From TrEMBL:
Belongs to the tRNA(Ile)-lysidine synthase family. Gene3D superfamilies: 1.20.59.20, HUPs (3.40.50.620). Keywords: ATP-binding, Cytoplasm, Ligase, Nucleotide-binding, tRNA processing. It comes from Streptomyces radicis. One of its GO terms (biological process) is tRNA modification. It is found in: Cytoplasm. It is an enzyme of class 6 (ligase). This is tRNA(Ile)-lysidine synthase.
Length: 349
């Protein structure tokens, strides 16, 4: 008799990712894959599946838990989670304490601190991949949040199944080893939260439910416990799956548009770094605005502070030119039209 269907589902998802890791790895080196685990049902299910599958395919498996220090007893809880992970046979296992700042709100600050810690652990152990336990439900929540921001196709694309770690793009790693930067991988984006919880239950894995996940002061918590249930009641139980499918389709579209924009930017860029107005004017708006966003970021505008309204106003310098004054973009970047060129540069230059 085989494993419970929930356990089989999580193991299959992890097995597929491990096969992808092996395809990218050097054959003479057994790659190390690390599971990021908070102790919740999603990440404990992930860790258990990794511990089961990794030795069967020739992959080394470890884990890390991050103590954000935001709740009383968080340090002891992190040590307890680390002990559970080690009992599964994972090695190395690390528990890392971080200091959460205040920039961008509590959720964003905690996320920034967490990914910095995961990236540091991956570099320390030269891990090939870090697995994250985000589920289809998490993806649906992310799409709803993106829709509320109104930031375009990319914001509806949700979380990628594979993304590079913040240490950089492909190429020599931050540790100087010459290995590629590690990749974050999300095996469970097609699996719902109920399945991961069931997998923990039938395996008798203890889980910790973070009280922040039910705290209405956090935006994602309100989406999870208020917005999505209302949508499912009004539209039916397929809402979560439909939102996750929207993410997949939007990501494909956004990737194609980004690739088009990169080529268009190269064609429109003059030797002095300015952009040719005539070349930009003929582009579809979705492509042209991506070119403008890339150019603004390259000039020094922080990506997180550059909103749709900034790009729309910059776009008007091309499509609705009436002698407007230069625009002030985030990061003290100035956008101005100069003859047949668009100039984006630091205001003090």
């Amino acid at each position: 008799m085989g494993p419970h269907p929930a356990v089989a589902a999580i193991r299959l998802a992890v097995r597929r990712v491990l096969h992808e890791v092996l395809l990218d790895a050097r054959p003479e080196v057994a790659p190390l894959v690390i599971a990021a685990c908070s102790g919740g049902a999603d990440s404990m299910a992930l860790a258990s599946a990794l511990a089961f599958e990794a030795p069967r395919v020739g992959v080394r498996a470890g884990a890390v838990t991050v103590d954000h220090g935001l709740q009383a007893g968080s340090g002891a809880r992190a040590r307890e989670v680390a002990e559970r992970l080690a009992s599964l046979g994972l090695d190395p296992v690390d528990a890392v304490a971080v200091e959460v700042g205040r920039g961008g709100g509590p959720e964003a600050a905690a996320r920034t601190a967490r990914y910095a810690a995961l990236d540091a652990v991956a570099e320390r152990y030269r891990a090939t991949a870090v697995l994250l336990g985000h589920t289809r439900d998490d993806q649906a929540e992310t799409v709803l949040l993106g829709l509320a921001r109104g930031s375009g196709t990319r914001s509806l694309a949700g979380m990628a199944a594979v993304s590079l770690g913040p240490s950089g793009a492909k190429g020599p790693g931050a540790n100087g080893s010459g290995d590629p930067a590690h990749r974050y991988r999300r095996p469970f984006l097609a699996i719902d939260r109920q399945t991961t919880r069931k997998a923990c239950l039938v395996q008798s894995l203890p889980v910790w439910d973070d009280p922040h996940n039910a705290d209405p002061s956090f935006t994602r918590s309100r989406v999870r416990h208020e917005a999505l249930p209302v949508l499912e009641k009004a539209l039916g139980r397929g809402v979560v799956e439909a939102l996750a499918r929207t993410a997949r389709l939007s990501r494909d579209d956004a990737d194609a548009l980004d690739a088009w924009a990169l080529e268009a930017q190269r064609a429109a860029t003059r030797p002095d770094g300015t952009l040719e107005i005539a070349a930009l004017r003929t582009l579809p708006p979705a492509v042209r605005r991506r070119v403008l966003r890339r150019a603004a970021i390259a000039a020094g505008s922080p990506a997180g502070s550059l909103f749709a309204r900034h790009i729309e106003e910059t776009d008007r310098l091309i499509t609705a030119w009436r002698g407007q004054r230069p625009l002030n973009l985030p990061g003290r970047v100035e956008a101005r039209r100069q003859g047949g060129r668009l100039v984006l540069q630091q205001a003090n230059q």
